[in-house]
Design brief:
Two copies of one chain form a homodimer. Chain A is α/β, with parallel strands linked by helices. In chain A, about 35% of the residues lie in helices and about 15% in strands. Chain A is built from eleven helices and twelve strands. Chain A has helices spanning about 120-135, 150-160, 180-195, 205, 210-225, 230-235, 255-265, 270-285, 295-300, 320-330, 355-365, and strands at about 5-10, 15, 20-25, 25-35, 45, 75, 80, 85-90, 145, 165-170, 305-310, 335-340. In chain A, helix 3 (about 180-195) packs antiparallel against helix 5 (about 210-225), helix 3 (about 180-195) runs antiparallel to helix 8 (about 270-285) and helix 5 crosses helix 7 (about 255-265). The mean pLDDT of chain A is about 95. At the A-B interface, helix 3, helix 5, helix 6, helix 7 and helix 8 of A face helix 3, helix 5, helix 6, helix 7 and helix 8 of B.
Chain lengths: ~375, ~375
């Protein structure tokens, strides 16, 4: 994709969130790849997952090592081909990469929002991104796509704006979290909230970071992103020093790896954003207002659907994707479903697995623009 | 089993641990149920798992609600029938229920050991319990049994003292931890160690407890003890207050349950014991000295084996038990294996599932005393 430049747009109209809270306005940071055609029919919105952002593809001139998180998918000649599509990546409201969020200044106080930033939901993100679509002159997305939490946003687009999305591509996702999913999120949240440096969410004003909590949150999250078998193949019981050292230093490579991932994450991600995002995951449940009847909830969708899952994903297993597929089929909606054999667990959706990319390419090639 | 009374025995001979560290002596707290017969042929040792102890069955006169953790299994007429067997429950070295451990006074300093208590291994526990067998006049156990970490001890007995154990009963266990198992233990340890109240393991001397860390450790551990399906059936997405509250109070019942379990655990368990015990789990690997050849490692065993696993146990799945079974079969050792359909995940081994107790009863009835 070459060098790309993030853009920023401000919206001054207040937005009322699902919680009832209101923001007086907000800014979104986004990137675009490819060219919007004259009829505006070739736009694809890529929605990010928990820790992702607007930097989907390409690299930055001042930091060529910072490559977009879905760069293997998006670019000229790639499955999401920017010779054909105009691709938009956007950082969600409540994020920590420039979009208005807990680290932004609260216009009412002149201080950072911190814990006063309201909770946002998948529905709120879609509402906010609709304003971005308006701003970019996109009446209808050719497709909205994403993995994990990004897939939930694609699904929500098909429900909140049935006439503004032609294809919803829901990958490695679920129609709602299970009790176990919520449980892992809750451990992560409690790790952050119980860190003494959290200060009730107002750590930034004090110039500190709840590093330990963020680190633990990432460590436990990371375990759920990888498959048991992949972790076994990659790390197994390999020792850092060839022997058991009978200390609490890392004995096994997997310990060292998790600590590294935790430390790295705590160095760049915002704790309040982590909390908000896990709550958005927990709350997402389009069938909630339909007496738990997912088919009834999805009845109003008009998009065509592409749903994909991965065999070793135990965070959002294939059976969770099949729930979506069956609910769509009950409505006689158009749906293509791919269950990909891949060893990499939940994170498979980020990889360029041959079969996975082949079905994505085939589906995207068949979208008319 | 009625009222029982814990007993205590001290050993003044020093014990050299696998780490090379030495304890000048130690005390074990234990309980017994039933009567040792004249030939000493009817003794069964029950080994506990991570947070268990010597209180296997019965209740205490001063606290009748404190019922042993395997009371459904052990007693007159129960599968481990105390009319036939003399059953011994013992609290492991390094524990926090009275056996010498981090909360004990270090004779060298007159202060609590805390972080100075040496790491102990499954091998060390078996060596310590062999002294208890000597003390009780038990030359050979009719059986050594346990679930999870307790099953590892039963397996280790068959290797360290092949002539002192006739039956090894290894339930819901594994021949070694997987990378994922170690990963979860490491998150729990880091939660404890990074708690500012941990004070490098010397919290007791300061009169404080790393409550937050222990609480998080238990929360993440607890998730791995339950099956996804059982958690779904029991909690699903049930709300505490019938609505999403957009706060970090518990929204979902599963959050409230995990917090309760974490708080309860932090109120009675010792953090250093938790650390030591998870390391003992991580280190256990009888095949390590045999070039990862489990069959070679188990060759020296002379016991008959009973191995059982549970269909929904994802901590130590049935495939982990089958590794043990296959390694035993390669040696043409006697082995009975039961794979039990039970919805309760790893914790199934503690329950009185009908089929599970029936096979245990059948196996134990066939042990000659």
């Amino acid at each position: 994709m070459g060098f790309v430049v993030p853009q920023r747009v401000g919206f001054n109209e207040p937005i009322t969130l699902k919680s009832g809270a209101q923001l007086p306005g907000f800014e979104l940071v986004f990137e675009t790849y490819g060219q919007l055609n004259a009829s505006g029919s070739n736009a694809v919105l890529v929605c990010h997952a928990l820790s992702g952002g607007h930097h989907v593809a390409g690299m930055y001139a001042d930091n060529p090592k910072n490559i977009g998180w879905w760069d293997n998918l998006v670019g000229p000649g790639k499955p999401l081909d920017t010779n054909k599509f105009f691709v938009v990546g956007v950082n969600n409201l409540g994020g920590c990469y420039g979009t208005t969020g807990p680290l932004s200044l609260n216009p009412e106080t002149g201080k950072r929002y911190g814990a006063d930033f309201p909770m946002v939901t998948v529905e709120d993100w879609v509402a906010a991104h609709a304003r971005l679509a308006d701003h970019l002159g996109i009446d209808t997305w050719a497709a909205v796509m994403g993995g994990s939490l990004g897939g939930m946003q694609a699904l929500e687009w098909s429900l909140q704006f049935p006439d503004r999305i032609r294809h919803a591509m829901v990958i490695a996702s679920a129609p709602k979290l299970s009790a176990q999913n919520i449980a892992f999120n809750e451990v992560a949240r409690q790790a952050i909230i119980s860190d003494p440096e959290f200060h009730g969410g107002h750590y930034a004003e004090r110039g500190v970071i709840p590093t330990n909590g963020l680190r633990l949150a990432r460590m436990v999250g990371h375990i759920t992103y990888l498959s048991d078998s992949q972790m076994g193949d990659k790390f197994g019981r390999q020792l850092c020093h060839g022997e058991h050292r009978f200390s609490y230093d890392a004995d096994f490579e997997i310990e060292s790896y998790l600590r590294y991932q935790g430390d790295k994450f705590a160095g760049f991600f915002d704790a309040n954003t982590y909390l908000i995002t896990t709550k958005a995951l927990d709350y997402f449940d389009p069938a909630f207002a339909y007496n738990d009847d997912l088919a009834a909830a999805l009845a109003r969708a008009k998009a065509s659907f592409f749903v994909a899952s991965f065999s070793t994903d135990w965070r959002f297993s294939p059976s969770r994707s099949r729930e979506i597929v069956f609910a769509l089929m009950k409505n006689r909606h158009r749906v293509a479903y791919a269950e990909i054999d891949c060893d990499a667990g939940h994170d498979s959706f980020l990889l360029d697995d041959t079969h996975y990319h082949a079905v994505l390419r085939a589906y995207l090639e068949n979208i008319k623009v």
